[in-house]
Write the structure tokens for this entry.
Amino acid sequence: MDSVTSAIQSLPPVAAYLIIAGLVFGEAAVFIGFVLPGETSVVLGGFLASTNQLNIWALCVLVVVAAIVGDSVGYEVGRLFGPRVVRSALLRRHEARLDAARGTLRERGGPAVFLGRFTAFFRAVIPGLAGLSQMRYRRFLMWNALGGFIWGIGYSLVGYFAGASYQKVASRIGTGAAITIAVVVVVAVVVWYVRRRRHERVQEQQYDAERAARDG
């Protein structure tokens, strides 16, 4: 990975943008994430933006789009070729971790797609497993877009503000970010569920009142 980051640093801006976007896109779309985690290239891009070699806002947009589109391609690969991909030599070596990812997807559904974005292995396999399990694409896209948005902007800004220390930061933020995001998601899901139940109760009360008025 050091050779890749060094190469990106020496490239003109357009080429740097394309390589960073390609690494992010390829993580789930073609399973590049098993070899080159995209978050390191994103943090590097943020660092390059801090030195005015790249534009931070253009980087954020590019990374978010590449993350969402790449995961969507990974979803389609899983939907169309899932069993064949899972049996491939590349994934057979990770059978235990694949089972864990499947378990997480079964238990948490959409939130697992979101959380998977913040762990390198899950980021590479969750989209394909979601397609393989026939998760509705609309639901997948909602959680995928949310994860891609927060991850893309977050890691870009981490690199931007970390400056020359981006390599140390990139190697340490994965676990902490995953835990933090998990807590945020759990709280958000609980709040959403409570509000939804409250809204349903209000609708039921309104319906009962209207029905009583008609009957009376």
Remarks:
- Confidence is low (pLDDT under 50) at residues 178-182.
- The radius of gyration is 20 Å.
